[in-house]
TrEMBL record:
Residues 623-792 form the TPPC8 first Ig-like domain. It comes from Morus notabilis. Residues 701-724 are annotated as: Disordered. One of its GO terms (cellular component) is TRAPPIII protein complex. It comes from the Eukaryota. Residues 828-945 form the TPPC8 second Ig-like domain. Signal peptide: none annotated. This is Trafficking protein particle complex subunit 8.
Length: 1134
């Protein structure tokens, strides 16, 4: 360890344990000194500190602002060994101040120290705490708040002038009289004999026979020194040579301004404009320095040395040695039964114990620590046997300090200080101040040895019941935990919180804020959410108390989204926050407001470039589905292509080539989830997007065939930022208002519609919380890596890039509707629908194409059937004119509208569609309509309209056929048809059964009336019918080879009541024949060589099932069973 005297504790001891000089002066002396704004003690204090006092000769040093001089005087131990005093200081006190401090006054002074420190630290209130990673656990204690040292010194001084310690007892008395006083000699005599002497002298606690030094003060402004010189001569003839004359206020040129004023540090209350020592020139300063130097080196130090020698001889003769020790023990043997005495009031200055204590303290003040320690040890046992606990604790305290300064036995030093500290506490309130002083010295000793963890525990033990005192000790303990190796960060933060709570109880709000803000660095990223909420909420409240509402709002904002708190706490936080905002009288704008919570992971951007959507829900369909559907629609891209993508790359600068494309006048939609993390409801209003639109200059609107390089140099932009749609004609923003219940999550859909061409950037979202706070949240995210087809990384594309759009000029956009497409129906249901396409633009579209994802469910009809009466249009005509369907056209995946088909703004396009619910289940139908733009100057040559519909298909009739050869006739077959109604409520009427194929003729074996008298199948009912199927292949009709998907003509049998005149439906014409062809594709089997037959069962809903009060169309159902084969007849074994 370094020299103990140079450690913080060593410096403190050199400052605090020094000889005391009692000052007795007259009022005229004080009046003379007050001309300089100083008292007499304050005027001499800068000259009471000396360096390097020894006996090797001396050289006078230049005067410094702090009054340090180099002097030389023989300093010797009790054994007459010379040594050097590196630093020596006198402490001057008026006689009236030599008394134990009043505790209430001391507390008030300490409170003023702390309050002043808080006022000086206003700048820290606005600064952010350092991050936890920047807290250096090895910084020196000097970097701690500077007022800690001053506060600790004041605490030490609050235990001064006790009767059980001699280092606070005056070693000399300085009697001061003015040359203007009447009868100065009598004044000197009266000063020492008045009742102004301290109680320590009157009560017998100290020896009244102390050194007296007489000083005559002359004010040079009152005239020459002739009178003062005569008085000095008379003084020396009366009192001896210990008399001096001090002339002050010698400035002849008016007030003197001292550049480095030595009195500032000794003046407790100094106004900024006050010039201390304004009438003291250099001669006055040198004279004061010389007088104090003479008093120290020629009077006080020799006097103390002489007393040490005398006392040491007496103690050696009476107490040291084996014989004297036995005598002392024998004499004290009968005192074991006496009652405890906390302070040992039976001791006077003349008692042996008091003399030994004086010897130890004098030796300590003259830095002879070996002699001091030996005497402390000697007296310690006596006090313990006498049960004088306060004196015993005081001796143990000095023993610990002596061990420390001698750098001997660390364990003994710690033991003595801990023993003293514990003993002081046992005494009770009378020992509390001494315990605090002992604890502070103990702490400094531990910190010097880098035992910061142990020092923190001592600080905690020093904490008393007084909140302000406890707050300072806890804060100092927290820094000890930070200085530990390794740093104990959680204890550091926790003790800061404890300290802040006590500062608040003491009305030290600024200090409470400071400690809590320092604790933020510990708990900001920690999982201890409750203590973090406590810190932020209280800081916010305290800032509001100080009127710093902006800082109050920013801190309370941190606890608004406290989902882990109870409902009551959440309500308190939110209510307090709104009250603070209300006090400001304005609306706060808060970036990254946490209430409500914006779930960025749910964010989806929906926009229309060449791809447009019939409804917003269509945009949620996977892009892969549309791509596979549109492969046959979009023209193939050749090497020399000039499509809209190439055009886009030419029109836009390189910076924006990776951007998305949207069309002016068409909305870009942003969907994201908003969650209320609280258990209480909140009100959210005016939710809208934050967008920036950079309007392109006219130079960029050149012809599309211009070279890309030229256009890229003409991309000057004019920024137009939209934060309120009402104030900007270039953007239209949607706004929504809603309330969120506790824990509720809602999907918010917001749109922005650019009105001009340029670059659109969607920055974020804004909203109003309870009409008091405007929240902002930027859509920021980490870049996402996209991979090319070969798996190589293609670069980073951030969320902000996905929210950047190149806005091109307005284009025509089709709107599509299908009426009346049901959302729920039964299997086999056949309906006539109409596709309606509207164009709201003045520009015409042409070359339309349509592709359906499920032709089994949806077929495109002919224009002639648009106004057909359904289902009458499907009835079989009396004169049968069979028209062979155009198989090539129907089998194509893409339906091409007639070449002359165009859609203008005036007239919508209506086109018939046929729907059939082929199989039960939840069916998703996807339609894509391709159309080209007639205007050749458009940035896009074509666009697509995507449509999506979900249909729930419920089970209806289940049919099965079994074909068996007739035993009697080779070309005839027996057919068994089983029908089951699988619905729970619906009834069906079977209408007809058709066999598909020219070679087949089907007939009933028995009337349906006998099988199904009620003429309908109710829910759950089944039916079995038998038919005769004849193969007329050999009847002369030519046989034509057909594919598996062709549908030749067949025969039909009526299943209604006998004699019914209801018309039959033509299963060999569109759309039934088209749906049957698709069924053959889906039901196709691998046994192509076998002879098969197809059946089509037509049924209708029972009329009683339809509500007469509704306009529901009549329902027709077709059920298809394809590729039915004969069941072989088993051969009989003979």
């Amino acid at each position: 360890m370094a020299d103990p005297a140079k450690t913080p504790l060593g410096k403190m001891l050199l400052d605090e344990i020094n000889p005391v000089v009692m000052v007795l002066d007259t009022p005229l002396v004080e009046e003379t000194c007050r001309k300089n704004g100083l008292s007499f003690v304050e005027m001499l204090s800068p000259f009471c500190v000396f360096n390097n006092i020894d006996g090797e000769g001396f050289e006078m040093a230049k005067f410094e602002t702090v009054g340090f001089d180099s002097v030389a005087v023989p300093v010797r131990t009790a054994s007459d060994q010379p040594y050097r005093l590196q630093k020596f200081r006198l402490r001057l006190f008026y006689a009236s101040d030599i008394r134990q401090p009043n505790l209430e006054v001391a507390r008030e002074r300490l409170k003023q120290v702390i309050t002043q420190a808080g006022e000086n630290g206003d700048s820290e209130l606005c600064s952010d705490p350092p991050p936890i990673e920047n807290l250096d656990a090895r910084f020196e204690s000097e970097n701690l708040p500077s007022w800690f040292a001053f506060f600790n010194k004041e605490l030490v001084r609050s235990a001064s002038f006790s009767d059980h310690e001699a280092f606070d007892h005056p070693v000399a008395c300085l009697l001061v009289v003015s040359s203007k006083d009447e009868q100065p000699i009598n004044q000197f005599v009266d000063l020492f004999n008045t009742n102004k002497l301290p109680s320590l002298l009157n009560d017998g606690a100290m020896d009244p026979k102390i050194l007296n030094y007489y000083l005559l003060v002359h004010d040079n402004q009152d005239g020459t020194t002739d009178k003062a010189t005569k008085i000095l001569t008379e003084m020396r003839s009366t009192f001896g040579s210990d008399c001096q004359l001090l002339c002050i206020n010698s400035s002849e040129d008016g007030p003197v301004e001292h550049q480095d004023n030595p009195w500032v540090r000794y003046k407790s209350e100094t106004s900024s404009g006050q010039n201390l020592g304004s009438f003291l020139n250099v001669n006055d300063i040198n004279e004061m320095r010389d007088i104090m130097q003479e008093l120290s080196t020629k009077q006080i130090i020799p006097c103390m040395e002489q007393k040490i020698r005398v006392l040491n001889q007496q103690v050696s003769a009476t107490r040291k040695g084996f014989k004297n020790q036995i005598k002392s023990l024998w004499w004290r043997k009968g005192k074991d039964e006496i009652a405890d005495s906390s302070n040992g009031s039976m001791y006077t200055f003349s008692s042996v114990e008091s003399q030994i204590r004086v010897l130890g303290d004098y030796a300590f003040m003259l830095r002879d620590y070996e002699l001091a320690l030996s005497n402390y040890r000697l007296i310690s046992t006596d006090y313990k046997l006498d049960k004088a606990w306060k004196r015993y604790a005081g001796v143990q305290e000095m023993m610990g300090l002596s061990y420390f300064l001698l750098d001997q036995s660390r364990k003994e030093a710690e033991y003595c200080l801990e023993n003293a500290f514990t003993t002081y506490l046992k005494i009770g309130p009378s020992g509390q101040q001494n315990a605090t002083r002992c604890g502070l010295w103990w702490v400094e000793m531990l910190k010097t040895r880098y035992q910061f963890r142990e020092a923190a525990s001592v600080y905690f033990r020093i904490c008393g019941e007084e909140p302000l005192h406890s707050a300072v000790m806890l804060e100092q303990a927290s820094y000890c935990y930070l200085l530990s190796t390794p740093p104990m960060l959680h204890k550091y933060g926790f003790h800061l919180v404890l300290s802040g709570e006590r500062y608040k109880k003491s009305d030290q709000i600024k200090h409470a804020i400071r400690t809590y803000k320092n604790a933020i660095s510990v708990y900001k990223e920690a999982t201890w959410s409750h203590i973090k909420d406590h810190i932020y909420f209280n800081i916010g409240q305290w800032y509001a108390y100080l009127g710093r509402y902006d800082l109050a709002v920013s801190h309370v904002l941190e606890v608004l989204a406290c989902s882990h708190q109870s409902k009551t706490s959440q309500d308190i936080f939110l209510r307090q926050f709104l009250q603070i905002v209300q006090k400001t009288g304005r609306i706060f704008e808060v970036p990254k407001l946490q209430l409500p919570e914006i779930k960025i992971s749910s964010l989806r951007v929906i926009f229309e470039d060449h791809r447009t959507y019939a409804t917003p829900a269509v945009a949620s369909v996977k892009e892969s589905i549309w791509r596979s559907l549109e492969e046959d629609l979009i023209p193939s891209l050749s090497t020399g292509r000039t499509n809209w993508l190439e055009l886009h790359s030419k029109l836009v600068a390189k910076t924006y080539k990776e951007s998305n494309v949207c069309v002016a006048g068409e909305a870009v939609r942003v969907d994201f989830e908003i969650k209320n993390p609280l258990q209480i409801p909140i009100s959210v209003s005016s939710v809208s997007l934050i967008c920036e639109l950079a309007a392109s200059s006219d130079e960029t609107q050149t012809d599309a065939n211009s070279q890309a390089g030229k256009l890229q140099n003409d991309n000057e932009l004019t920024m137009t930022t939209s934060r309120e749609s009402d104030n900007n004609s270039f953007l239209t923003l949607s706004k929504v208002d809603f309330s969120l219940g506790g824990g509720e999550v809602v999907m918010v859909q917001l749109t922005v519609t650019p009105r001009i061409e340029g670059i659109l950037q969607i920055v974020g979202v804004r909203w109003n919380l309870s009409s008091a706070v405007v929240g902002f949240h930027n859509f920021e995210s980490n870049p996402r890596r996209k991979k090319s087809a070969k798996g190589r990384q293609r670069g980073n594309r951030s969320l902000s890039d996905n929210l950047k759009f190149v806005v091109i000029k307005s284009l025509p956009k089709l709107e599509g509707f299908i009426q009346p497409l049901p959302t729920s129906t039964y299997a086999g249901d056949v309906r006539h629908l109409v596709l309606e396409l509207r164009n709201q633009s003045e520009c015409t579209v042409k070359n339309l194409k349509l592709k359906v994802s499920h032709p089994r469910f949806l077929n495109v009809g002919s224009q002639e059937s648009l106004d057909a009466d359904f289902p009458a249009c499907l009835e079989k005509r009396t004169e049968h004119h069979y028209v062979q369907p155009d198989h090539n056209n129907i089998s194509q995946p893409v339906f091409i509208f007639p070449e002359d088909t165009i859609i203008t703004a005036e007239t919508p396009l209506l086109w018939p569609l046929w729907f059939r619910a082929a199989v039960p289940g939840n069916i998703s139908l996807y339609l894509t309509i391709y159309y080209e733009i007639e205007d050749s100057s458009s940035s896009m040559r074509y666009r697509t309209l995507r449509m999506h519909h979900n249909v729930q298909v419920l089970p209806s009739l289940g049919i099965s056929f079994q074909v068996s050869p007739c035993p009697s006739k080779l070309e005839e077959f027996l057919v068994q048809m089983d029908v089951v109604n699988r619905t729970s409520t619906k009834s069906f009427q079977v209408h007809q059964l058709a066999s598909v194929g020219e070679q087949w003729e089907i007939s009933l074996l028995e009337p349906v009336d006998t099988i199904l008298p009620s003429q309908c199948l109710v829910a759950g009912q089944s039916l079995s019918c038998f038919f005769m199927l004849k193969n007329q292949r050999k009847s002369g009709i030519s046989e034509n080879k057909t594919s598996s998907t062709s549908v030749p003509l067949g025969s039909v049998v009526r299943l209604g009541p006998e004699g019914s005149t209801e018309p039959l439906f033509d299963t060999s014409s569109s759309p039934l024949v088209d749906f049957h062809r698709n069924e053959r594709l889906h039901q196709e089997i691998s046994h192509q060589g076998d002879s098969t037959v197809d059946f089509i069962l037509i049924s209708r809903s029972l009329k009683s099932d339809l509500d007469s009060g509704t306009s529901d169309p009549p329902q027709l159902f077709s059920h298809h069973s394809c590729h039915c084969r004969q069941v072989p007849v088993p051969k009989l074994k003979i």
